[in-house]
Amino acid sequence: MPRTAALVVALATTAVAAAGCGDGTPPTEPGVVRVVAAENFWGDIAEQIGGRHVEVTSLIDSPTADPHLFESDPRAAASIAAAQLVIDNGLGYDGFVERTLKAVGGHARHVLTVGDVLGMARAGEANPHVWYDTAALPKVARAIAAELTALDPADRLAFDSGAKRFIRSLDPLLATIATMKERYAGTPVAYTERVPGYLLKAAGLVSTAPASFSQALEDGNDPSPGDAASFERAIKDHDIRVLIYNAQVADALTERLKQLADDSGVPVVGMTETMPAGTTFQAWQLRQDRELLRALGG
After folding, report:
1. Poorest-pLDDT segment among 95-104, 131-140, 282-291
2. What global pTM score does this model have?
3. From residue 23, how far is each of 105, 107, 285 by CA, in Å?
4. CA dihedral in degrees (290, 199, 204, 181; nearest 10)?
5. Domains of the chain, each with CATH number or no CATH
6. Per-residue DSSP letter, 195
7. Which of 28-32, 185-189, 191-195 has the lowest mean pLDDT?
8. What phi and psi values does residue 186 have, to the nearest 5 degrees?
9. What would the pLDDT profile of 76-93 be if each residue is shown by its tens digit?
10. Any residues with CB less than 8 A from the CB of 221 and at least 6 apart, and which?
């Protein structure tokens, strides 16, 4: 048995024991749905929609962790084993969830994969950072409400209301993106990773960074010398208005690009994959959108 598979099975065995053998035990409280989200931003959205009728556990919740490198552990496996609803991103971003679900077995649980909700391919070329696609989030919110209703029909009105409230709360984000598009459509920018790809597209901004450069960093590899040189030249020659970097994953190359941008007078904006502690999804995204808007004007 491959080492990774053996580890998942071992974790699953521990998880099933911790979760009461995974036999479909009822909620801790009547009318409370146990939700496990792979990432804390999906967990926050589920909590906003479900309110007091959900108990949410988010597995990836540190703004300093690299989600691409996350692997299941006994805590994560036990949480998934006991969940009634599991929410994962899909698109190759959090494959540990699917592996753990297969390993823990047990009671039937609902699984909502955001990439599937949006009708996107499970893996491959699709940019997995779909939470930066603000216009697509209402569809996700309604899907979460539908899953919660299926598990707790008595609280359908609360879930519907929560989804509508969340969707309305996206208006400031959409307005900020519309302002960016109105003022700066066609402006060249560059990102070290594809984290804000959907945001840039919605705002009409043009990413000029070599696609192979960003893909290499996401995959944990070193970009080619040619791609790195091309990126540095674009900064030095002011061929881009703003440099956007993944503030969650720092390495020597990223730091060099940031320093080069500072020295060249090119504004730098950091964006993260995981939601920082002590905030909400909307506040996090709005802060980043406004920082980008200011940088474009600077």
Report:
1. 95-104
2. 0.89
3. 9, 5, 39
4. -30
5. 3-168 (3.40.50.1980), 171-297 (3.40.50.1980)
6. T
7. 28-32
8. 90, -5
9. 999 999 999 999 999 999
10. none
